Request: fold
Amino acid sequence: MNIQTKFHGEIEIQSDQLWNFPKGIPGFEDEKEFVLLPIEGNNIFQVLQSTNSLAVAFIVTNPYTLVADYSFDIDGPTIELLNIEKPEDVFVLGILTLKQPFETSTINLQAPLIFQMNNRKAKQMILNDNRFTTRHMIGQPKEAN
Reply:
């Protein structure tokens, strides 16, 4: 199927590239289907693009590459919704807010995206953990605090 994207123009995607967010993403509850797209020349960041809406696209990255002491437990409702059986079934991404200069850009550590690889379901999970913020500067050193 062909979709219009915010950063890549019109592209063709296969059904096995789709990620289903059964409850959408907070603030975008009607957006249920997304695809992860590479950013040319960059293997750290990706685009999480809605297949339904050209304007709904998020720059995402693996938060563990930016924050050494980032850890949390996946809550019961998320485990149930995504049918998670073991930790190896999932990977985590965080949504970035890009700014100029780039070093002042931030990542949302308070609401990670959880992806279940076996069934291609995903969810943004809101943490109840005051150790992390929605605007952690990515230019901060990676070492543990």
User: Anything to note?
Assistant: The first helix runs from residue 76 to 82. The chain has a mean pLDDT of 93.
